[in-house]
Amino acid sequence: MTTVVVVGSGIAGLTAALHADAGGSTVTIVTKSELAEANTRYAQGGIAGALSPDDRPIDHARDTLVAGAGLADPGAVDVLVTEGPDRIRDLIAAGVRFDRDADGTLRAGLEGAHSFPRILHAGGDATGAEIERALVEQIRRSGIRVLEHTYVTDLVRREGRVAGVETLGGGRLEADAVILATGGAGRLFAHSTNPAVATGDGIALAARAGAAVRDLEFVQFHPTVLATGDAFLVSEAVRGEGAVLRDESGRRFALDVHPDGELAPRDVVARAITAAMAHQGGRPVLLDATAVHSSDPDERSRFLAARFPTIDAAVRSRGLDWAREPIPVTPAAHYLMGGVVTDLDGRTDVPGLYAVGEVARTGVHGANRLASNSLLEGAVFGARAGDAAATDGAAWPVPAGTAAVVDAAPDGIPHPPFTRRALQELMWADAGVTRDGDGLRRAARTLAAWRTSATPPVSLAEHEDANLLLVAELMVAAALARTGSVGSHQRTDDPASADARVRTDLEGAA
């Protein structure tokens, strides 16, 4: 009987664990916080899938490829969109309560860069929380072993393969297969939508074990995060309902950069906001929902509270009445498209090691993620990895991909002392929404100096810091290596953006 350790407990990890368990494996889930504490829990947007008889997987695939700026893997995208509807039906069978119309029909919404309303939500803007709730309940019923508040510090390697994990405090779990499902690295940046657990642990674990990583330069910055109080994401679905972006003068500036305006791909909208903020001295732009649904502000207020209850509560807790006045927003780091290179079943190029969800680079997203494809990716590829881990023998297909190389060296110039906040501010300034060669080289030198002076980590926070520092070096090296602009990677020293040309070609072909 195969033993499988799953590290992480979002939609990808829980789905992988359930499939490995169904395949006859002995499964243990290890998570550094509570079982339900994962990026999935905070996903306000929905899950995309061509379930309507009027929609087609091929159309979903086209939208995904266009959003990916020509760098998405068509084979991975085909798996995502063709298997996605069945995985959504699995979630429904597991008890996920997606929003429905009065007649019981699943209610599907429209989000940026989708050509058809195919986005399912739950609780209006609490889709991730509802999916996490249902999957956690299923895990509890299954009897799968769960180790909460257990931090993995390293992978056990034996005879050229991964054979388990080391945990903080010295505990070791032996396993035939380890599935990394640790999420992304949003906590690399000063402004982030990610929860505190998103510290790049899985990417660092895999890189130290020799696994290939790729496309770390592609970070999606969500365009609309509340710019007052703690960072809080305002879902793209709000713009899907008709909210618009305005600068301080009241002008809808997003239409200047893309015909779809506020519903253009996220990288386009985030850059438009960044440019508008720079033009007005760094002050936030405004998200205007005052024309959504009704001309009557009281009716509009009731609609916003019912459609977006979580966002409505957050907005109002800050003393804002978004039914009557625009609210201030700013971009923030949201999703990492790159990660540990895998094949279509989650296998890395290190035998015994799998990666799923945001930690993985499946090729689905290319240079930019299509809205609401992340939960779908977790469900589809989590299932495939769980099935593969339960059945893989000695054969190990090796996916193509190379690891980023960190070649910077300390420059001898005094740098500020390392703190997590200093790292986050550095990455926001020099590897954020826009980058250039000078800033990236400056960041690389500072990161190298911090690495040289680092001491071996002891506490959980120190291990997280070490992982963040390693992933930051890999990300900056990747961003330096890609000198052209494409997708979410915008080099201001390459003003003729490659993704604009690619996207035009793709849209013309479609």
Automatic annotation (TrEMBL):
Gene: nadB
Keywords, sorted A to Z: FAD, Flavoprotein, Oxidoreductase, Pyridine nucleotide biosynthesis
Residue ranges of every copy of the Fumarate reductase/succinate dehydrogenase flavoprotein-like C-terminal domain listed in the record: 420-501
NCBIfam families: nadB (TIGR00551)
Domain FAD-dependent oxidoreductase 2 FAD-binding: from-to ranges: 4-375
Main location: cytoplasm
Name listed for the protein in its UniProt record: L-aspartate oxidase
Reported function: Catalyzes the oxidation of L-aspartate to iminoaspartate, the first step in the de novo biosynthesis of NAD(+).
The protein's annotated pathway: Cofactor biosynthesis; NAD(+) biosynthesis; iminoaspartate from L-aspartate (oxidase route): step 1/1
Family in the record: Belongs to the FAD-dependent oxidoreductase 2 family. NadB subfamily.
Pfam families per UniProt: FAD_binding_2, Succ_DH_flav_C
InterPro entries in UniProt: FAD-dep_OxRdtase_2_FAD-bd, FAD/NAD-bd_sf, Fum_R/Succ_DH_flav-like_C_sf, Fum_Rdtase/Succ_DH_flav-like_C, NadB, Succ_DH/fumarate_Rdtase_cat_sf
Compartment list: Cytoplasm
Gene Ontology terms, MF aspect: L-aspartate oxidase activity
Protein source organism: Microbacterium aquilitoris
SUPFAM superfamilies assigned: FAD/NAD(P)-binding domain, Succinate dehydrogenase/fumarate reductase flavoprotein C-terminal domain, Succinate dehydrogenase/fumarate reductase flavoprotein, catalytic domain
EC number annotated for this UniProt entry: 1.4.3.16
